[in-house]
Structures are given as structure tokens and as C-alpha cells.
Amino acid sequence: MPETTTIIMLAFASIMLIIISSWCYNAYKLKLSNDNNNNGSQVLALKNNDKIIVIKGAGYDDIENAVQQFSLKYDIDAATLRINKVAVSATTITFPFDIAFDRFCFLVNYLYYPEHIIYSADIKAWAMLSKVDEWADVQLAGKKIMIYIPPDDKEYDNVFMTTTDNEGYKMTFSESRPSPLSAGNFPLYQQQGQL
Fold this sequence. Notes:
Strands 2-3-1-4-5-6-7-8 form an eight-stranded antiparallel beta sheet. It has helices at residues 2-37, 60-73, 101-112, and strands at residues 52-56, 82-87, 90-94, 122-128, 144-148, 158-163, 168-172, 179-180. Mean pLDDT is 81; it is low at 21-42. By secondary structure, the protein is of the alpha+beta class. It starts with a helix and ends in a 15-residue tail after the last strand. The chain has two domains: 1-42; 52-180, no CATH class. It has three helices and eight strands.
């Protein structure tokens, strides 16, 4: 009798394994079919934009880990951005599919203050503000800006901006508009690559 029970249990387990395997295989085939036919899947289009982040002083693997953490935290597909090692301790991040301006600022901040990753880096980013960008005042629309976080920052929840005409602003994430900074309290605008 114990042999019969063992045989029945093995037969039941085998049937369940076949059913589960079949279901997984069919689900996988359906996903491939949808991906290939673009039915139900989002097609990403390249978008011309000038957003770039330059990180100096942190290792490529640390930057990659920080970007993965950020992507999971803010539900952004990490495949929509490009991480490029341009020198031993210099990395750039570009956005061939674009990224919303507020998420771009959040990423700059997150790279400066990553969770459970320790490095000290000089991080600057550049973008052209448009009228549709969240946080972009009318006076800033159409201006190229440099985004950074000063080394003496103690608030942790903001980014700073300098325009090409050397106007300085602080963007606190809890506010809807940037606040002007007093002259001399921010770095002058630097062209990309002048870190």
C-alpha cells in the first residue's frame, strides 16, 4: 500500500510539473509574439534631446548600481538611458529616449546621494529647459542650464542650477518653482566636459 501511495504522489507531481511547464512556455510564447508584433507592448522612439550627466571620481560599477537602484525606486526602465565609461574615473549618462525634467533632476540628486553606495564624485548635468518641463519658469524656458549639488549641501532634497547667462537657482523638490540665488553664491556656468 505505501508503494501505491508513492506512485500516485509521483504521478500527481509529474502531471502538475507538465501543466506548469506548459503554462510557462505558452506565456513566454505569447510575450514573444506580442513583442514581435508590437501588440500590447510599448515601442520606444528615440527623442532628440541634450540631457547629459557627467560623473567624475566614482567607479563605473558604482554608477551602474546607483542607476539600477534609482530605476527601481522611480519605476524607470534603465534600458532607456545609456551609461558610458569615458575615462578611468569618468562616466556619462545620456538619454536617447529622453527623460522628464523632474526625473532628470531626481537622478542627479540620487547619484550624489546614492543609497548603500559610497563614493565621492563631482557630478554635473546639462539640459535645455522647455516650457513644458515641470519646474521651468517662463524666464528659464529655452535656456541651457548646468545642474549640480554643492559639496556643502546639507538639505539633500534639491538640485542647483546655473544658466548660460550665469543666473543661479535652487530647486527644492518640495516646491514647484526654482528660487533665485544671490550673485556669487553659485558656480559660473561651465560647458559640458569642463569639470
